[in-house]
Amino acid sequence: MSLVLIGVFFVLAIFAIPIAHALLAASAVSIGIFNPKVINVIVERMVSQSQSFPLIAIPFFMITGSLMMGGKLGQSLISLVTLFVGRFHGGPAQVGVLSSTVFGGVSGSAVADASAIGSLLIPWQKKIGYPPAFSAATLASAATIDILIPPSIPFILYALASGASIGALFYAGILPGLLLCAGFMMVCYFVGRARGFPRVTEVMSRSEFWKLFIYSAPALVMPVLIVVLLRFGIATPTEVSILTTLYALLASLLIYKDLTTSRLVHSMMEAAVSTGVVLLIIMTSSVVGWIITFDQMPAVFTRFANEILQEKWLIILAMNLLMLVVGMFMDLPAAVLLLAPIFVPLAQSVGMDTVQLGVMMVVNLAIGLYTPPVGTTLFITSSVAGVKIGATVKELVPFYAVALLILGLVSYIPAFILR
Fold it and tell me: Residues with Cβ < 8 Å from 195, sequence gap 6 or more?
């Protein structure tokens, strides 16, 4: 069944059938051919998977991000970040990296980051003289920091598929996210210095700085609150997501006073649509998971890898290479849900715990978001910048190098995973 499933899925994917629909159709064909008497398992698995309590966190985190970054706060955060790093070589590009890192503590979605920050910063960077392709490359890669800094929607999905603690994953993703931020900012600095990119030289008075800092404080505090609430067991991830939404509503209503009915409705509709897409992938991936478990593919794959590769470092390298290839062709949520059940037993067989595997998987698959042929943030930022994909990919080369370096650190050195 698994071989037929994979074959049908790739054929449908070649014809650009949406991932969720391709997974469902491939599952139905494989079960229909080999075990038609249990065809009803498709509906049973899809419904049962949708009843998971932690899934409630996804739409609430999305609403929080939309409310916090859709109003006055988004521009004030970017102004604050510009004040900090705009005067350095490659400063305006570093603004994008740092903004994505801060935005990651609010949204949890790389696609939302690329759309929101890209539409704000790319026109500004082009106006002051930055090459559009470099601006697109910077923000396409920086947007993926968003899914490592808590809250992270991919971590929630991985926890659902692997049984790992969402709180532990959120905490473990902080250091790799900050390392990516530092690495990407260094790329911006050295490229900006070598190519003579313009800098921001405006000076702000101390009083204006503190006024802007205090104004932006609610967004800066949010990721800290999330980590504290989860780390000390004060609230569950689902409860935290609801609390952050309430926090965003109160901040927009009482502090920024930019909450309107239309903004609230837009945020809720946007979250509903995005959640619907993710939920459909989760439901159909559950059917796929049942098929590969029925065929004992995880056990067979684990035994094969241990017998052929034997060495732990080779097994980890093989997992990374497979994930890199899958990430180039498949959306991150679907890839996480499909690969986690296969890789968890293999990782455990070589002494890697589920939290380290989760961080390694998300860092790895995040690279696929800005890698052709199916790179979501790559397409978004290139479209905003008005440049061809190939031009953006050329500018992405040093960013790929940094991302692969961080991937190697989290894969082979457990100390880079906070506990």
Answer: none
State the first-to-last Cα distance of the chain, in angstroms, to the nearest integer.
39
Residue type at position 299: A
The pTM of the whole model exceeds 0.70: yes
Given a cut of 90, whether residue 172 has pLDDT beyond it is yes
Report how far residue 332's alpha carbon sits from residue 179's, in angstroms, rounded to the nearest whole number.
21
Higher pLDDT pick, 180 / 418? 180
* Distances in whole angstroms, Cα of residue 136 to Cα of each of 109, 174, 195, 324, 378: 17, 24, 16, 21, 7
| Burial classification of residue 401, based on how many CB atoms lie within 10 Å of its CB (0-12 exposed, 13-18 middle, 19 or more buried) | exposed
Identify the band that residue 330 occupies on the pLDDT scale cut at 50, 70 and 90.
Answer: confident
CA dist., res. 361 & res. 200, Å (int): 37
Give pLDDT tens digits for 313-325. Answer: 999 999 999 899 8
Q: Is 296 left (phi over 0), alpha (psi -120 to 50) or beta?
A: left
Q: What does the pLDDT read at residue 105?
A: 65
Percent of the chain with pLDDT over 70: 97
**Tokens in use for 7?**
């074959």
**When comparing pLDDT for 123 and 297, which is higher?**
123
Which residue shows structure tokens 């559009």? 132
Distance CA 7, CA 64 (A): 39
Taking the C-alpha atoms of residue 110 and residue 100, their distance in angstroms, rounded to an integer, is 9
Cβ-contact 26, 207 below 8 angstroms:
no
What residue spans define the domains of the chain? 57-282+296-416
Q: Is the pLDDT of residue 158 over 90?
A: yes
Q: Is 79 helix (H, G, I), strand (E, B) or coil?
A: helix
Place of tokens 């979250």: 271
How far is residue 203's CA from residue 337's CA, in Å, rounded to a whole number?
48
Alpha carbon 394 to chain centroid, angstroms: 22
- Taking the C-alpha atoms of residue 124 and residue 175, their distance in angstroms, rounded to an integer, is 30
| φ, ψ of residue 373 in degrees (nearest 5) | -90, -15
CB 122 within 8 A of CB 385: yes
